[in-house]
Amino acid sequence: MQFMGKEDVEEKHVKRTQKDYTLDFKLRVVRELETSHISMNAISRKYGIQGESTVSRWLEKYGARDADGNVAALMLRKKRPLSGLEQRNLVLEHELSLLREKLKQKGYKEAFYEVLLNMLESGYRVEIYKDKDKLGIKPGR
C-alpha cells in the first residue's frame, strides 16, 4: 500500500491580490459558500483569498445571509428604508467608482500617446517637447 504525502493530497493554491477580485469572482465565491457545506476558511484557502474577513464581507454584501447565517436579519436590514446618510453614501460610492474608471481610462490614453510620441521621435526624427505653457513640435536634425 502506497501512502500519499501531504503535498500529494493538498490542492495547489494561488495567492491573489485585491485586484484579482472581480465582481463575478466574488459572486461565485458567495454562491458556492451558500450552496455548499464548506466553511469560509476552506473557501478562502481554495480560492487563495488572503484576508480573513474578505469572504465574510462579500457574504454580507452580496449574499442572501450574513456571516453568522442569519437570513432574516439581513433581509430585514435590506428592506428597511435607507437613511439620508446611507443614500448619500451609496451615491458617493457610485460616483467614486465612475471616477476611478475614468481615471483608469485616462491612464490608458496617456500610455497610448506616450508610445505614439516615442514612435514619432524615433521613426520620423521629429523632436517633440513639452513645456509648461505649450506643446511644441519641431523638425528633427
TrEMBL record:
Residues 25-64 form the Insertion element IS150 protein InsJ-like helix-turn-helix domain. Pfam families: HTH_28. SUPFAM superfamilies: Homeodomain-like. InterPro entries: Homeodomain-like_sf, InsJ-like_HTH, WH-like_DNA-bd_sf. This is ISPsy11, transposase OrfA family protein. The lineage of its organism: Bacteria, Pseudomonadati, Bacteroidota, Bacteroidia, Bacteroidales.
